[in-house]
Design brief:
The complex is a heterodimer of chains A (about 550) and B (about 230). Chain A is α+β, with helices and mostly antiparallel strands and about 550 residues long. Chain A contains 13 helices and 12 strands. Chain B has 8 helices and 12 strands.
């Protein structure tokens, strides 16, 4: 009876729920009886040619068949029935249950003992085989699950595939994993969702079933006791297993049983609980990983922000300091200022006010670009005219290199003017005085390329990646005409908003010269964006 | 003709240099300018200025480094300028031996006042120093170790007196927490700022008991204290 005790599913379980268990099925007994009857019939026909010993041996066939096919109890039944039919039909006096020949009585007794032992050992062997198979399947399923949990893919996908694995492994109608809303959702949003597999779609669930957060407040142990099967509204039987990580509920594993299935037994429940624990930990891990990622991002952006803030405060206060110092000198009455010094101080105030204004303008532009609030008013632009106008305004000695009749490009005139101005100012700043600045324009079907080249000293290659960073200055030296450190990052923002690129080439010839190049798409690659912008512009006009 | 007082101004902002040069020249000072750390050290050794006005944020060599190197061979008064909000830099500069600090933007009057205090203090160090310091109705006689409020003698403990004497002896200058603790209590007590606060508040109670606004010992937030004497 070892085998029977080993089968912890108990007689109420059915084989179909994963562990091949012990079935008590009337059909098995009928088949057993049939097999015994058939054997009796065949033996009756061949009675004259068979000795009692051979008949006893042949009666072991239905017993063995029952033990192999239908398990211990049918086999024992077969043994008992065979015992009686053997006695009744084949032992003298026939058609009675008495035995006259002591030898035949011995044969009958030996038969019963052998039949019962045979039933037991065959059934036990079968049970062991089934259990081994079950363990193997369990191990395989757990392995598959672990593999799925460790897969470095999106965690929702992972949970979806786990839901599929569970549905298949337990031959379910469906399975749902519900990650409950977090008690204190972080500022970046709650991580709650549900994945399902099998025949179940969230829509097919009865109303209110997806609202699981309330039931998750139960402590996991208590909830464990409650997770016996209950019948959902439409006849689907469902089982909820709470998902917990470190005693805290994180969600629910909901199983939908096929209508024909019995509820799972303790072994299956144990396995399901193991699954649930793994899934619970996985959800928690995913949440923590996500939080950690966010925290890191926030920290990084905090660091950048404070660096930016100190840079901005320095850049704003420096011209203010010069203005304040000059003004307070001028205000002092008990002193003699010579007219040149006075003029000097006044022009310092004037220049620094301009610089402050330029810086504030650049800061506003930069924050607009960064906030994505830069609205391009795209129109067909004559780049030829635009470049000449900018050069004239800056009083630049520039050489223009482009073919006549440049095609128009769809761009925001004011913003591209801004880019050209910044690049030209930059070029003037770094070019030796009295030298020429070259402006080249080339076009092909895809894009227009504009290059501004100054013959000044080259910019070391290692600095190139930083040139478009905010507040990045090549030189630490300060001069009244110096830039705000924002010009190139504004250029980059504007050009990229147009769908173009901007980069630097240096040195240009030999070991000197610096060339800034930007492109504007010729084809309207961002037609959708354009429409959207138009709409937004309309909206803003209306507003 | 009397030799003009020579001031070295170190700032990488040409406009600030220009304004300060004009402002100080109008007050009768002789002004030398330098726009980076290296130049500052060169000019300081070549010109032997009577005081240095030093921006902390300098190219090539930081103001803190200039301060440190300058102090190795010179006791010229140094007034530090900074736009930084970080109090730490100012404290570091003061601990390195700078005499005072000003946060940009500042008015020229303020700079001139600080400059006068620094120059006077430097002169006093060479001579006997001022034996009697007055602030409000309080008289501190450093040679006789007597503190009077009006005609009345104020009774101070030894530590309270040492603290007051150190502050009053450096009247007009900012003294960092570390400097005060080191001087009055000793090197081992550098970090006991809380203790210092207690003594300062006791001193204030004994010296200006009626005043809600501390008039004699001014707090420089995050940096230290400054004794405000009558000029």
């Amino acid at each position: 009876m070892n085998a029977h005790n080993g089968n912890r599913n108990g007689p109420t379980d059915t084989r179909r729920f994963f562990l091949p268990g012990y079935r008590i099925h009337p059909l098995d007994f009928l088949l057993t009886l049939g097999a015994v009857a058939l054997t009796t019939a065949v033996l009756s026909l061949a009675r004259s040619q068979l000795s009692t010993q051979v008949i006893a041996l042949l009666y072991l066939v239905p017993v063995m068949l029952s033990a192999t096919r239908w398990g211990l109890l049918p086999a024992l039944a077969a043994s008992l029935v065979s015992f009686f039919t053997f006695n009744f039909f084949f032992l003298t006096p026939t058609y009675t249950l008495t035995v006259s020949d002591p030898e035949e009585l011995l044969a009958l007794m030996v038969f019963l003992i052998v039949a019962v032992l045979l039933s037991q050992s065959v059934a036990a062997a079968n049970m062991h085989a089934a259990q081994a198979e079950f363990r193997e399947k369990e191990a395989t399923t757990l392995y598959t699950l672990t593999r799925a949990l460790e897969a470095q893919s999106d965690w929702k996908e992972t949970l979806a595939s786990i839901s599929r694995i569970i549905t298949e492994a337990f031959n379910l109608s469906g399975c749902e994993i519900l990650a409950s809303p977090e008690k204190e959702p972080p500022a970046f949003g709650d991580l709650s969702f549900s994945v399902s597999s099998g025949d179940i779609t969230p829509d097919s669930l009865p109303k209110g079933k997806t609202n699981f957060s309330g039931s998750d407040d139960r402590p996991p142990e208590k909830a464990m006791d409650e997770c016996t099967g209950k019948v959902a509204g439409d006849g689907l039987r469902e089982i909820d297993i709470p998902l917990a990580a470190h005693q805290a509920p994180v969600g629910t594993l909901r199983l939908f049983l096929r209508p024909s299935e019995a509820p799972p037994g303790p072994t299956t429940m144990r396995l399901l609980t193991t699954f649930a624990a793994q899934v619970g930990l996985f959800i928690e891990r995913a949440r923590l990983a996500r939080e950690a990622g966010r925290a890191q991002l926030l920290e990084e952006s905090d660091r950048l922000k404070s660096a930016l803030l100190s840079s901005v405060s320095h850049d704003l206060r420096t011209p203010l300091s010069a203005i304040k110092a000059s003004a307070t000198v001028l205000l002092k009455e008990d002193q003699v200022l010579d007219p040149t010094a006075r003029q000097d101080l006044l022009s310092a105030i004037n220049e620094e006010t301009d610089r402050l204004n330029r810086l504030i303008g650049d800061l506003l532009d930069m924050s607009r670009i960064e906030a994505g609030a830069l609205r391009l008013k795209r129109d067909w632009c004559d780049v030829d005219e635009l470049i000449r106008a900018v050069a004239r305004r800056h009083g630049v000695r520039a050489q223009f290199h482009w073919v006549p009749d440049l095609p128009f490009v769809l761009a925001d005139y004011v913003q591209i003017d801004r880019v050209m101005s910044n690049l030209l100012e930059n070029a003037i700043r770094f070019a030796p005085s009295q030298s020429n600045i070259d402006i080249e324009v080339r076009t092909d079907e895809r894009e227009m390329t504009v290059a501004v080249t100054n013959p000044g000293p080259a910019i070391p290659r290692r600095l190139h990646p930083h040139l478009f960073d905010k507040f990045y200055r090549i030189s630490e030296e300060r001069s009244p005409g110096m830039g705000t450190g924002l010009g190139l990052s504004i250029c980059k923002g504007i050009v990229e908003a147009h769908g173009g690129r901007i980069w630097v080439e240096s040195p240009v010839t030999g070991d000197s010269g610096t060339r800034f190049v930007f492109t504007l798409p010729m084809v309207d690659s961002s037609a959708d964006d354009g429409e959207q912008d138009d709409e937004e512009n309309e909206n803003s006009h209306r507003g | 003709m009397m030799k003009k007082t020579k001031i070295l101004i170190v700032d990488d902002e040409p406009q600030i240099l220009r304004a300060l040069r004009a402002g100080l020249a109008a007050q009768g000072y002789e002004v030398i300018g330098a726009s980076d750390g290296e130049e500052a050290l060169d000019k300081a050794s070549a010109e032997q200025p009577d005081a240095v006005i030093l921006d902390l944020n300098l190219p090539r060599k930081s103001g803190l480094d200039v301060c440190r190197e300058l102090r190795q061979w010179s006791s010229v008064p140094i007034i530090v300028l900074s736009v930084r909000d970080a109090e730490r830099d100012k404290v570091t500069a003061l601990d390195l031996g700078a005499d005072d600090y000003l946060t940009k933007p500042f008015g020229t009057d303020e700079l001139l006042a600080r400059l006068r205090v620094a120059l006077r203090h430097a002169a006093a160090k060479e001579g006997a120093g001022e034996p009697v310091v007055r602030a409000g109705n309080v008289t501190i006689d450093l040679s006789r170790r007597v503190v009077l409020r009006g005609e009345e003698v104020v009774h101070l403990t030894a530590t309270e007196y040492n603290l007051l004497a150190y502050l009053a002896g450096n009247a007009g200058r900012v003294l960092t927490h570390t400097q005060i603790l080191e001087h009055v209590w000793g090197e081992a007590y550098q970090s006991e700022t809380q203790n210092l606060r207690v003594y300062i508040s006791q001193l204030r109670r004994k010296l200006d008991p009626d005043s809600l606004q501390p008039q004699m010992i001014a707090t420089e937030p995050g940096i230290g204290y400054r004794f405000l004497a009558e000029e």
